[in-house]
């Protein structure tokens, strides 16, 4: 709602030391141009620089696709050289190791310990795998 955002912007300018009338005038002026208003609100309200947000949704989708594709190799690899329960056991181990590696890597960015991040990633991944296995079982799909 533009009126609420304009009011918020005026409050921000008041907090920065402008008089009430001047803050309202500046906020009103900023809100006239939607692009400038969005840029200003992003900077002032969220403390973010829109130029740093950057990114292209197509490149993000492409990178995501590639990473998911590479990640899908780990659970599939054991089925290239073995089958049955042996392949399933190796699939679980390789998947857990890959998930733990991802968890350790993400710990560099999330500020949590490597062990916590690795364990969390493994638990979430194994829950997702168990769910997928359960759905496949319900649908009558099996690995031979």
Can you describe what's shown?
This protein has 144 residues and is mainly alpha-helical. The protein folds into two domains: 2-53, no CATH class; 57-139, no CATH class. 83% of the residues lie in helices and 0% in strands. It is built from eight helices and no strands. Helix 7 runs antiparallel to helix 8. The longest helix is centred in the C-terminal third of the chain and has 27 residues, at 84-110. The chain is elongated. The chain starts with a helix and ends in a 5-residue tail after the last helix.
List the helices and strands and how they pair.
Blueprint: H1 2-15, H2 20-31, H3 34-46, H4 50-53, H5 57-76, H6 78-81, H7 84-110, H8 114-139
Helix pairs in contact: 1-2, 5-7, 7-8
What are the defining features of this structure?
single chain, 144 residues, mainly alpha, 2 domains, 8 helices, 0% strand
Brief rundown of the structure:
This protein has 144 residues and is mainly alpha-helical. Helix content is 83%, strand content 0%.
The ordered H/E elements are: HHHHHHHH
| Rg on CA atoms, Å | 25 Å
Helical residue percent? over 70%
What is the 3D form?
elongated
Provide mean pLDDT, rounded: 86
Which stretches are low in confidence, meaning pLDDT under 50 for 5 or more residues running?
none
Gap from first CA to last CA:
57 Å
The DSSP helix count reads 8
Strand segment tally = 0
Structural class: mainly alpha
| Number of structurally distinct domains | 2
Most strands sheet: none
Sheet-strand content, in percent, reads: under 5%
């Amino acid at each position: 709602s533009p009126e609420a955002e304009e009011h918020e912007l005026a409050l921000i300018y008041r907090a920065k030391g402008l008089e009430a009338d001047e803050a309202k005038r500046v906020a009103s002026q900023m809100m006239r141009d939607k692009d400038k208003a969005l840029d200003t609100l992003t900077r002032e309200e969220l403390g973010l620089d829109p130029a740093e947000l950057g990114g292209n949704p197509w490149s993000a989708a492409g990178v995501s696709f590639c990473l998911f594709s590479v990640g899908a190799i780990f659970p599939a690899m054991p089925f290239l050289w073995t089958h049955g329960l042996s392949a399933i056991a190796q699939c679980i181990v390789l998947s857990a190791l890959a998930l733990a590696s991802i968890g350790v890597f993400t710990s560099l960015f999330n500020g949590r310990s490597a062990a916590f991040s690795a364990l969390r990633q493994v638990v979430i991944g194994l829950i997702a795998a168990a769910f997928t296995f359960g759905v496949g079982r319900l649908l009558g799909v099996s690995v031979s």
